[in-house]
Amino acid sequence: MAMKTYEMYGDLEWQTEGSTKFILSVGLALYDKDTNELKDTFFSYVAPQYTGFKVTDYIKNLTGITDETIRSAPTFNQMMQHFDKFLYKSVTIPDCSVMGIYTKGSGDTHALHSNFRFYSRDYKSRLCCNPVFVDVESLYPFNDTTLSTNMHLKPFRLETEAKALGIDVSKYTLHDSLSDCKLLHDVHTKIRELSEEDFKKFYELCLIQRTRLNFNELNEEQKAYYLKNMENDESVMTLDNYKQFRIVK
């Protein structure tokens, strides 16, 4: 029997206190790479063991997590016991290999290491034995060839990338750890299917959609087109209408 390849996607929600990024929730989603079938999931809230810890209004509004949400949640060490069991179950599936845990950016990996240090757990030996956390952006196609001369790969929000790819983000609960895992899988799957030319278009669309930073970089014709066709910040261009946008460029 041929070895099957599974991919795991991970997401953390966390809040910084001092030098520690305290994890508030953890999500994992396991997919069959060949069929894109969701095989298994893991989710847990986490109660930070830090005197006087309060969820900030910003985090409440962003994630929906409140002090009440995590009041009776497992501690980090308790959550990691369940986390380990899920990983062990996943990596011991017969005739299957798990290709790392893909995350968006390096922030979640830093948060995990930060919690290991705060709670005095040996994270270095653990992460050598378990599937390695991998920044999915490092796996984007054409990084070396497409972006080396006239582009510099910049990190974009997951939501921005999804919209540029034409993914309906309303079907996901943004900043929910498990839902973000599923969205990351869908974004990653579409990106690695792009041709080099479409990857260039995708990257430019992400730059344009990050309007607060890049709108002033557009010429007057581009600005007029953008304002005419984009009703608000939630209305975005995708690869499907990119060609029309290029007419005025």
Question: How does the SSE layout of this entry go?
Answer:
Layout: E1 4-17, E2 20-32, E3 38-45, H1 57-63, H2 67-71, H3 76-91, E4 96-103, H4 107-118, H5 123-129, E5 133-135, H6 143-146, H7 158-164, H8 177-191, H9 196-209, H10 211-214, H11 220-229, H12 239-247
Please, could you describe this protein's structure?
- By secondary structure, the protein is an alpha/beta fold.
- The protein folds into 2 domains: 4-138, Nucleotidyltransferase, domain 5 (2-Layer Sandwich); 140-247, no CATH class.
- 44% of the residues lie in helices and 18% in strands.
- The protein is built from 12 helices and 5 strands.
- Strands 3-2-1-4-5 form a 5-stranded mixed β-sheet.
- Helix 7 (158-164) crosses helix 9.
- The radius of gyration is 20 Å and the shape is globular.
- It starts with a strand and ends with a helix.
What do we call the CATH topology of the largest domain?
Nucleotidyltransferase, domain 5
Form type: globular
**Ends: how far apart?**
53 Å
Which blocks of ≥5 consecutive residues have pLDDT under 50?
145-152, 231-235, 243-249
Number of helical regions: 12
Radius of gyration: 20 Å
Largest sheet entry: 5 strands, mixed
Protein structure class: alpha/beta
What strand line-up does the widest sheet have? Answer: 3-2-1-4-5
In percent terms, what proportion of residues is strand?
A: 15-25%
**CATH H-level name of the largest domain... which superfamily?**
Ribonuclease H-like superfamily/Ribonuclease H
Q: What count of structural domains?
A: 2
Overview in brief:
The chain has 249 residues and is of the alpha/beta class. It contains twelve helices and five strands.
